[in-house]
Design a protein that fits this description.
Elements: E1 25-27, H1 41-49, E2 56-59, H2 69-81, E3 83-85, E4 90-92, H3 106-114, E5 121-131, E6 137-147, E7 162-172, E8 180-186, E9 195-200, E10 205-208, E11 217-218, E12 224-225, E13 239-252, H4 265-268, E14 269-270, E15 273-274, E16 281-293, E17 303-309, E18 315-321, E19 327-338, E20 343-353, E21 359-364, E22 371-372, H5 384-391
Parallel strand pairs: 2-16
Antiparallel strand pairs: 1-2, 3-4, 5-6, 5-21, 5-22, 6-7, 7-8, 8-9, 9-10, 11-12, 13-16, 14-15, 16-17, 17-18, 18-19, 19-20, 20-21
Length: 392
């Protein structure tokens, strides 16, 4: 626990250990050229597009949190034993640490991101909003629940079978209220693709979804894809993956301020972009990972460039290009370190449509903090029958 922090336990907002810090510099359209080599194309586009309002406040860099000793031991073993399977659709490694601490290929780096350390149970309300250039907002709200059996503390297992069970119950918008999606994510997407089922409150029936992932639209207005979550998730099969290198970048990190209960959505969600006063950026070393759509495959994004934190492997920003090669969407994911769980957790995520000027925020938890690592759920909570019973 950071010194001076009064954390009241799971289900409460994590206090900001850096609340008294001031920005070292604020990057604007006027001084952006001085920092251009440390900004992504998406950041530079927003600075140019909204020169009077979009800013990037850069705070001191902190590396105060790290892996527990058990994870370091597993990472050392993975470094010499982990291997990809099925052309990169799966892997053979030990859970609890990065599978490829010294990645040699784009797919190995992607799997470090896919399996970045996280919590084993998560339950809570998550708010979504699409903010249009005129300031109008389309709201979404879901109750989100996840169980990752292999990540139970002190449990050691191989990357085999189910990685995570998930349940998403829609509360807003009204036309989708009552929909429930349950499913499972597997370690090997070739052997067992992701499976999902949806309860429809109109028919009171549960049906298997023909597919749940890739570029299916998600959230109000469909302003992000299913595989936009954490910048990328699911099967890597549609893309060729390449490491473009490592560099220092100015990226969102240690995002405690943006999720505080005192931050009202009316103050946070402004036309064109979120209020910069609630964002925190740091200068950090990142991996740059490129995905190019394979011939014969379909996706809304022809090319993706992702920026992953060197320490934790979490994806923080992505420049997403359309099939013409034009920068179309820019995504930012905020993270905070959960002291009691010894793990980073993703929170408010922002997806900009650079053509329309609208943007979507996802996973806002200001009005109700999530319950993390409390347990109390089993795989039976995520079956089609559970969705049917909960929906009735």
């Amino acid at each position: 626990m950071p010194p001076g922090v009064n954390y009241k336990g799971t289900g409460n907002t994590y206090p900001d250990p850096y609340a008294n810090e001031k920005p070292l510099v604020v990057i604007t359209a006027k001084n952006m050229q001085s920092y251009a080599d440390k900004l992504s194309e998406g950041q530079k586009t927003l600075l140019k597009k909204y020169p009077d309002t979009f800013q990037i406040p850069v705070y001191p860099t902190h590396r105060d949190f790290g892996y527990v000793s058990a994870a370091c031991k597993i990472a050392k073993e993975n470094a010499v034993k982990a291997e990809l399977e099925g052309g990169g659709a799966g892997l053979n490694a030990i859970n609890g640490a990065p599978p490829f601490p010294i990645p040699k290929s784009g797919l190995e780096l992607l799997w470090n991101h896919q399996l970045a350390s996280t919590v084993y149970t998560y339950r809570g309300l998550q708010d979504q909003a699409v903010v249009y250039p005129n300031g109008e907002i389309a709201w979404g709200r879901v109750r989100f629940e996840v169980l990752s059996p292999a990540l139970v503390p002190n449990a050691q297992s191989k990357t085999d079978g189910v990685y995570a069970h998930f349940k998403v119950r829609t509360l807003l918008p009204e036309r989708q209220k009552g929909e429930i999606i349950v499913g499972e994510e597997y370690y090997n997407h070739q052997k067992t693709p992701r499976v999902g089922y949806m309860y429809n409150p109109g028919t009171r029936r549960v049906r298997q979804l023909p597919a749940y992932g890739f570029d299916m639209p998600q959230g109000p207005g469909g302003f992000r894809t299913i595989d936009d979550d954490r910048l990328f998730n699911g099967s890597p099969e549609r893309y060729d993956w390449k490491i473009l290198g490592k560099k220092e970048m100015i990226v969102p990190w240690n995002a405690y301020r943006i999720q505080q209960a005192s931050v009202k959505y009316a103050d946070l969600l402004k036309p064109n972009h979120v209020n910069p006063d609630y964002m925190r950026y740091e200068l950090r070393r990142v991996w740059v990972l490129e995905a190019k759509l394979k011939d014969g495959f379909r996706h809304q994004y022809g090319r993706r460039v992702m920026y992953l934190d060197e320490d934790s492997w979490n994806g923080m920003m992505a420049d997403n290009y359309d099939m013409r090669g034009q920068l179309w969407r820019f995504a930012m994911v905020n993270y905070f370190y959960a002291y009691d769980a010894s793990s980073y957790v993703n929170t408010t995520s922002i997806y900009h449509d650079l053509n329309s000027g609208a943007y979507m925020t996802d996973k806002m938890t200001n009005e109700q903090a999530p319950v993390i690592n409390a347990g109390g759920v089993t795989p039976a909570n995520f079956t089609p029958d559970s969705a049917r019973m909960e929906g009735l």
